[in-house]
Amino acid sequence: MDKMNSTRAEIMKMPAPHISQITNEDLFSRSDVDVIKTLGKGGYSEVFLASWKGVPYKLVVKKYHIADVDKTPANRGIKRMHFDAEIKCLNNLEHTHIAKLFTALVTSSGNLGYVIMEHYPGGDLFHFSHRYMLNGDQMAKIFMGVSMALSYIHEKRIFHQDIKPQNILLDGYGRAVLTDFGLASKLKEGQNSVTSWHTTIGHYGPELCLGRRFCPFKLDMYSFGITLWKTVFKLSSTAFDPFTFTHTCTSLVPYFKDALLKLLHPVPCARWDSGQFENHFRSTPRSTQIFIMQPQDPTAHYILLAQKRNPNAVPVPQPLAVVPFYTFRFGYTR
Ligand SMILES: Nc1ncnc2c1ncn2[C@@H]1O[C@H](COP(=O)(O)OP(=O)(O)O)[C@@H](O)[C@H]1O
Ligand SMILES: [Mg+2]
Questions:
Q1: Which residues are in the Protein kinase domain (predicted)?
Q2: From 31, 124, 221, 281, which residue has the greatest number of CB atoms within 10 Å?
Q3: Domain end marker among 118, 152, 187
Q4: Which ligand is closest in space to the CA of residue 163?
Q5: What integer is the mean pLDDT of 102-116?
Q6: Which residues, judged by CB distance below 6 Å to any ligand atom, belong to the binding site of ligand 1?
Q7: Residue 242 in this model has a pLDDT that exceeds 70
Q8: Which ligand ends up closest to the CA of 125?
């Protein structure tokens, strides 16, 4: 078993939630469950908003085709593995900024698996940040929340491996939670590096090109940096070199610029961990502005273009307004 599989095996050892078996071939054929709408569809699952008879609030149902039917041997069992990793992580991680699992179900045929979780009405950060104009303060609070979730999982030697705007959800008060633990793995005690990495294109740390062993926690931080970069600039991280772009940009306020340059640092040991990111955000005076436009800025064209591309963005509405930072740490319990 190579090192990557052994880190995955550590997740598989974690206790799973109680998994109920349902006799229906599909949960949605039951009369007590109604699908309200589809929320998302990824490579491994489909996500629905649903109502359940007797439950006073809406739920999210993530449906996995877990049957071992893939024709390519390399992919066989992979969906089941994603399902297992997701429910084991969500079952064992309890944090204000990590999505909440209610229960897990599988059909008796073993074809389908369901993850039932809390609904985060703000949706994912990708859509949220294109729909609403986030100011610097709101952006800082969202990323601070995600960083706290990363500190928590990294302390447990778990790495997420798929940090991106689509995997960050916002609750009814604009608080961020980290979700989608299908690719998460756990490093064994004594191990400090891995040899392979899975994430979305454009989120890979530059050290992957060197083909050596690398620290998965620093790679999560790089993907976190790309997530912040994409949210700030609304650009594709495959069309630009995000580090050089940030370096060149003179309109970005130092508060964000310094953080981005440290998170996207090409040398992993010079790159910030989540604790350093949080210290920076706590100790640096915040500004509600993200850009103070400079006429000589070589990147100004792209910043203005991104704003024009998004002419219908409106300020974050009150029910979704991001709450003051202190409530993140002390005031919010589930
Ligand atoms: N609990 C939730 N509340 C609101 N939207 C959600 C929730 N879970 C997922 N979504 C939506 O569905 C999308 C896909 O969910 P995700 O868990 O990332 O699945 P996948 O493994 O398919 O990427 C998210 O990007 C988000 O838009
Ligand atoms: Mg996802």
A1: 33-326
A2: 221
A3: 118
A4: 2
A5: 94
A6: 39-40, 42, 44-45, 47, 60, 62, 99, 117-120, 123-124, 166-167, 169, 179-180, 182
A7: yes
A8: 1
- 144 and 280 part of one domain: yes
What's the domain range around 289? 123-330
- Over the stretch 179-205, which tens digit does the pLDDT of each residue have? 999 999 999 988 989 999 988 999 999
Instruction: Provide the 10 A C-beta neighbour count for residue 307.
Output: 13
Percent of the chain exceeding pLDDT 70 equals: 90
Distance, in Å, from the CA atom of 19 to the CA atom of 3, rounded to the nearest integer, reads 29
Instruction: Output the pLDDT for position 327.
Output: 35
Q: How many CB atoms are closer than 10 A to CB 96?
A: 20
Task: Tell me the residue ranges of DSSP E strands in 108-214.
Answer: 112-118, 123-124, 132-133, 158-159, 168-170, 176-178, 185-186
As a whole number of angstroms, the distance between CA 330 and CA 249 comes to 36
Domain boundary among 90, 118, 146: 118
Distance CA 179, CA 110 (A): 24
Number of structural domains the chain divides into: 2
Same domain, 112 and 27: yes
Same domain, 96 and 170: no
Q: Is residue 326 over pLDDT 50? A: no
The pTM is what? 0.92
232 and 305 share a domain? yes
